[in-house]
Amino acid sequence: MTKELKLISPGEIRVRFAPSPTGPLHIGSVRTAFFNYLFAQKEQGTFVLRIEDTDEERSKPEWEKDIIEGLNWLGFQFQEGPGKGGNFGPYRQSERKEIYKKYIEKLLKEKKIYYCFCSLEELEAHKNYLIGIGQPLRYSEKCVNLSEQEIAKNLEQGKPCVLRFKTPLKKVIFKDLLRGEIEQDSENFGDMIVARDLTTPLYNLALVIDDFEMKITHIIRGEDHIPNTPKQILLAEALGIEPPKYIHLPLILGPDKTKLSKRHGAKSVLEYKKDGYLVPAIINFLVFLGWSPKTNKEIFSLPSLIQEFSLEGMQKSAAVFNFQKLDWINGFYIRQKSKEKLTELCFPYLIEANLIETHFETEQCPFACNIELLAQKFRAKETKEEFSFERLVNIVELYHERLKKLSEISELVDFFFKKKLIYSKELLIWKNAEEKEIKQTLDKLKKTLGKIKKENWERKNLEQVLLKLAGEIGERDRGKLLWPLRVALTGKKASAGPFEIAEILGKEKTLERIEQAKKILSAD
Question: Most exposed of 45, 230, 303, 521 (fewest Cβ within 10 Å)?
């Protein structure tokens, strides 16, 4: 592969990411965009964004916006594309009809494509016939030799038609820079439809024309496009065009080793953003879905990836999307944040969960808020209790080591912002203890904590006093005291430690919650 690259001077390499705006930018497509971006950056080349929106019924402006927003969020900056311009635009296929017309008319004039007027019924009947005799599905070539007069008459009558490519019967052999030589017999696909009319090419023809016009040197895409490659090579030959170099990435599989899909939990890249995944984590995770470094290093920054990336490191075998690994990497990057920065990042999730509110009206989505401004003026939505930013930092910091994604923060800390907790008496019971024992423990807790002065209400002192009491109650089993205390304060089966929680809640609220727990145990 290195030898192939030496044939092209640094800076001359041009790659493209060409999604269809028919839905959100899927994480699998993002992986393709990323490898194109990495390759372009490594070789000082150009990364082009082309929007393939010839499917007018399904293509929507909001999906194009989603694509561009997703790429920008991840930092995959394209040098040419919609909104940025460039010397080889337009960069939306819907705006390139006159360019396509020139090439389609050329192919018609040279009799390399032809009008096909076959009805759907005729095509279906021929398909069923081929299936019946066990032959490859291909067009019958019924319209290949229609006279000029027949064609003109059919067009004048407005008879529905398409344009088919007169496919040469030959073995198409091409070199994939990752997989070596690949061969396919054109007899397997026959005369394919390449355009609906003179200005509307279908996928394969539009791609060949666009890649040539935009001077694309390398096509990096998923291996599911391998069957299309021979078709595109034949179309390029018919137009007298030199095809680009091809690199087909391995498939991404779900944990069950089937192709990654929504049923595995795969979603759009902006959903990962909303879920609280950090950009460095997404990038670091994606690169290992088809590439491996020369070292055992698992964590890379984007600049270091660009420096170390090479086509030689690309893998042929399918990559498995391991959600646990993504969470682990994201947790790693979360732990690198300062507690103040992490609090700012978590702030929108607390607003969205209706746990806190700002002191002023805003119609903005919480994920678009000015965090520095909002973080200075907020309160608990349910209790209207004022919270300083410093106190919020202390709350978030309790879960700094546990967070795998930012969106988890709301469920973990919601008890700090609630007036009354809802939980069952069963949750308060430690192991096989009796309800009476737990109630007695709560009585002792309230009495002991009630004696601590507010000025001494800090974690270190609380821990010292409560561990002494725990020893008196349970001897070696501190859980007899600490379990019901933690549940009383949080209403949760799992949480941060009770000393840290009590310190932040304050004396008054801590005693209130212990009393609430006692009432739950007393209820019939």
Answer: 303
